[in-house]
Amino acid sequence: MTHDRRTNLKQVMLCAVGILMLSLGGASLAQREPGGPPGGPGGPGGPGGPFGPGMDPAKREAVWKLQVKSVAQDNQLAADVTEKLGVAYQASRARLGEAVAAAMRGEGEDRQARREQMRKLTTAEREVFTKELGSILQAGQVEKVAKVLGSFSFSWDFTANTLSEVVKNEETLLKAVAIAGNHIAKSETAGAASGGESPEARRERRQKMSEELNAELAKVLSEEEMNKYKEAAGRFRGRGPR
Q1: Which whole number is the average pLDDT over 109-129?
Q2: What are the contacts of 52-60 at 24+ separation with CB within 8 A?
């Protein structure tokens, strides 16, 4: 392996670890709560979950495009607006990844300090992204779109990717991804507002939210698709973090 390739791999790994720390919320990397709901907080792809950082770059970009398309359909955006939105979203997530990678190269900070820095980076990027949306969307659309896309959620990445592998009808897929995006954004907002809850209360809240998401997805997916989604999510959870 060449020096440049090793350096690039190291940077990617640093970025992945940094964003994973951010997604943990208040949980410890070494003591992540086991058995989180698939696609939900604490589960595979959720805060504390392993899916996002390990996703193949090409697949990750495809997932981001799918997320934008689902939000565009959910908000009835025109094709030219959707294209601009996609460019802004992918650029925003790339900037955040680069900022996290740079932060992770720093030395002398403890884990809690780095985690707080990751939160600040995400908040700052969300503000930039929301401002950019103001030049793309109508005033009444900005808040809703920013809440979903601006979550920069690995949990949604995981769910959208899993759905894309089991749902073949595009219209159904877009509806399902939009449902997941709206639900996960709401879930993560609730999690951020409940920082003082006990581990047991947090597990109960997360389990309830996962059940609510599955109930919503079941309204648009067939029984076969729903079963495949649960199976795929379960297989990933069973592998655990890498």
Answers
A1: 84
A2: 52/16, 52/19, 52/20, 52/23, 52/154, 52/155, 52/157, 52/158, 53/15, 53/16, 53/17, 53/19, 53/20, 53/154, 54/16, 54/242, 55/157, 55/161, 59/161, 60/157
